[in-house]
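A.,

Following up on our hallway conversation. Structure tokens first:
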């Protein structure tokens, strides 16, 4: 059985790696009423934190709250006992139990400060991030979250059930931690999608001009023609058993793959299988989830079958060629521009989140 100290160390050292290096969100406090169900220790900590703040900091905090969102304060409709709604963020309820679990999670991560306010702020941000990821259709699936959870347990020499029990004992809970994982994975995708859509797309003329100014030759890129073979799993029928069954079908089918010319005729007798033909796709344009797998193929064959938002799919390489033309220069320039995202990712993420906060409606009960 893993111990508290082992789990604590795991969160401090490896959680960012296991959550796919997700973008870290801001932890500035959003002012709100403290939970009446907080423990004595938490209340004392909140009072201590409050006493240490000077008047200027308190004023700044209040101003930040006003700018951050539309704040509405309503009297509680129920007695403060048991589980009750503490606040509502864009129509999504946050209960006192949610806040207690997040405060326990903050304590496990050794985050100092007023954990009552920090828990409120993290839950607000989590809801906004998940809502935005859902709007962009980049929400992490249950299978992806479970895989990350299992990987985290494995890194700590524990089974997922052992990790779940320990998280429950510490007051966090497996479901709360999994939702945190989902948020980090989904927000990273949302930020990447937003950055890509807002990044100025470099034209062929601009790319050529830059190459001439630098004296460099046009880059050589590998251009692919491939088929995306999807064994569809509808959202309302998505389950571990359904995905596992479809993965077995996809794996069996790809093992019989010969050429792209025969794919369509072979899938005619199969249920809910689609084949998407893609051509003139240069290496930097390959989706992140497939880029390394395609590179390993050396220009022929099929990738392993993977679970995706569509179901289970794999890539079949039809042909490749090396190109060095104006379009290659354009794609290369765009790719280099997007690569700069890593250097400014945190700043972009914070601005993005601030924008979501400015449009949010938060009701404190």
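Then the amino acids I'd put at each of the 365 positions:
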């Amino acid at each position: 059985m893993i111990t508290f100290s082992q789990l604590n160390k795991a969160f401090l050292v490896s959680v960012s790696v296991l959550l796919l290096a997700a973008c870290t969100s801001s932890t500035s406090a959003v002012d709100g009423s403290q939970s009446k169900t907080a423990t004595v220790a938490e209340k004392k900590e909140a009072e201590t934190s409050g006493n240490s703040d000077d008047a200027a900091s308190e004023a700044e905090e209040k101003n930040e709250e006003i700018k951050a969102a539309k704040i509405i304060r309503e009297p509680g409709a129920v007695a403060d006992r048991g589980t009750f709604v503490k606040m509502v963020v864009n129509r999504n309820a946050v209960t006192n139990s949610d806040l207690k679990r997040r405060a326990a999670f903050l304590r496990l991560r050794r985050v100092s400060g007023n954990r009552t306010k920090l828990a409120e702020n993290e839950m607000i941000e989590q809801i906004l991030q998940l809502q935005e990821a859902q709007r962009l259709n980049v929400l992490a699936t249950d299978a992806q979250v479970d895989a990350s959870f299992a990987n985290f347990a494995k890194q700590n020499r524990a089974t997922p059930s052992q990790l779940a029990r320990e998280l429950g004992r510490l007051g966090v809970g497996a479901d709360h931690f999994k939702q945190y994982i989902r948020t980090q994975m989904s927000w990273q995708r949302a930020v990447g999608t937003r950055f890509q859509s807002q990044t100025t797309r470099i034209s062929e003329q601009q790319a050529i001009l830059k190459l001439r100014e630098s004296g460099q030759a046009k880059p050589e890129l590998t251009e692919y023609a491939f088929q995306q073979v999807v064994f569809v799993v509808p959202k309302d029928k998505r389950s571990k058993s359904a995905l596992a069954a479809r993965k077995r079908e996809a794996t069996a089918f790809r093992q019989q793959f010969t050429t792209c010319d025969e794919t369509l005729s072979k899938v005619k007798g199969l249920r809910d299988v689609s084949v998407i033909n893609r051509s003139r796709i240069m290496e930097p344009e390959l989706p992140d989830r497939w880029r390394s797998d395609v590179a390993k193929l050396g220009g022929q064959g099929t990738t392993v079958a993977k679970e995706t938002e569509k179901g289970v799919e794999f890539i079949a390489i039809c042909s490749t060629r090396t190109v060095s033309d104006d379009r290659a220069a354009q794609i290369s320039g765009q790719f280099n521009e997007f690569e700069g995202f890593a250097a400014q990712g945190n700043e972009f993420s914070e601005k993005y989140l601030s924008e979501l906060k400015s449009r949010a409606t938060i009701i404190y009960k």
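The chain has two domains: 4-194+346-364, 221-323. Curious whether your intuition agrees with the design.

B.
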